[in-house]
Design brief:
374 residues; mainly alpha; two-stranded antiparallel ribbon; 12 helices; 2 strands; 63% helix; 5% strand; elongated
Length: 374
């Protein structure tokens, strides 16, 4: 009988093999963590109860600070309305100066500069009609604190004749205290109460979100391997930071362009805005959330690369298609103004290439045979 001879190899018995053995996870290590389906349901029920309790406590805290939140989120709207009425005032003052110049009256040499100087004062002009007798009585009273003459108090309270009326221009400062047009309005009795409750719920979600994530993570972590838990510990703060950055960019920067774009149509149509508080609260929550979700793009790219759906090569070769998709998302996640679309488009494009760099500098670990460990 002929025996087979072993084939020669290049391995030397005196030289140990130099390669890294991938991490192995013994299934027996998790025997103690295995639970029945009923036990999983009980754990889920406890996690949901704890999460609801955290939301209730967070909402109770939010009820205390809801008024401050409503006032705070109106600051971009108030600033946009001030700029809107300043521009309208400049336009009206410029038209008045041009009319006075056409009538032969004395006006400043540079009408445009005079109109801009007027707008910098943040004053509102209001033309009124007043009777000559009432105006003379007001002049006779003199400055505040002086005595009033007998002739000034004996004014006629009857309606003046049209020929007795003279035009007068009143000035008051453009502020929420002096100009009611800068304040939001409510159209029904329960609207302020509902806005207060909605603001409290939003604050409650923000306050309770770390605890809710912890309770849900506590339930999910029992079924994850150690290397999967490590990913969550790294990516969760990163994801939260990107969301807050996107939401802050939308609230403090993009809102200014959106509001100026929308208010420009009011001036073009000759309509004065009367913003409703409920509609503004709903609007102020949509755009920051859209930006926050859009800023998760690098993490989504890294996740898809880690699980093997896409590679860095695919990301690089198909960047034109990605830019096209980003432009479509920018139109869907923003209002109809081009400024906010450009802001989101540029931001997501930068984040897309940042996601490529993230995949390059955080590649998957591989064995010497080319298989991915993770």
């Amino acid at each position: 009988m002929e025996y087979l001879q072993p084939r020669e190899t290049s391995f030397s018995p005196l030289v140990p093999c130099q390669f890294e053995v991938p991490d192995q996870y013994d299934e027996d290590l998790f025997d103690k963590t295995k639970m029945t389906f009923g036990e999983h349901l009980d754990e889920l029920r406890q996690a949901l109860i704890k999460s609801v309790a955290a939301l209730v406590l967070g909402t109770l805290v939010g009820l205390i600070f809801a008024q401050r939140l409503v006032i705070f989120i109106q600051t971009p709207l108030e600033a946009a309305l001030v700029d809107y009425y300043k521009e309208r005032g400049e336009e009206q003052y410029l038209e008045e100066l041009e009319q006075r110049k056409a009538n032969g009256e004395e006006v400043p040499e540079n009408l445009q500069t005079a109109a801009r100087d007027y707008g910098k004062r943040e004053l509102v002009r209001e033309n009124r009609m007043i009777s000559r007798l009432a105006l003379q009585a007001a002049l006779d009273r003199g400055p505040a604190g002086q005595s009033v003459s007998a002739e000034a108090t004996n004014t006629d309270v009857s309606l003046p004749a049209p020929t007795d009326l003279i035009p007068i221009t009143l000035y008051y400062r453009l502020s929420k205290e002096d100009d009611p047009r800068l304040n939001t309005i409510a159209l029904n009795m329960q609207e302020p109460f509902l806005v207060w409750i909605k603001a409290a719920l939003v604050l409650g979600i923000v306050v309770a979100s770390p605890f809710v994530f912890f309770f849900i993570w506590e339930f999910v972590a029992a079924g994850l391997y150690p290397h999967e838990r490590r990913y969550v510990h790294i990516f969760l703060p990163f994801s939260l930071g990107l969301f807050l950055f996107g939401a802050g960019l939308a609230f403090f920067v993009v809102f200014q362009f959106v509001l100026h774009f929308l208010l420009a149509f009011y001036g073009w149509m000759g309509i004065n805005p009367a913003p409703r508080i409920t509609e503004w609260v709903n609007f102020v929550l949509i755009l920051p959330v859209g930006f926050g979700i859009g800023f998760q793009l690098p993490l989504v790219m890294l996740f898809l690369e880690r699980i093997g759906i896409f590679t860095v090569k695919i990301y690089r070769e198909n960047w034109r298609i990605a830019v096209l998709i980003i432009s479509v998302l920018s139109m869907l996640l923003t209002p109809a103004d081009w400024q906010s679309m450009i802001f989101m488009f540029v931001s997501l494009t930068v984040l897309y290439f940042g996601g490529i760099l993230l995949c390059v500098f955080m590649p998957r670990r591989k064995t010497p045979l080319g298989d991915a460990i993770e």
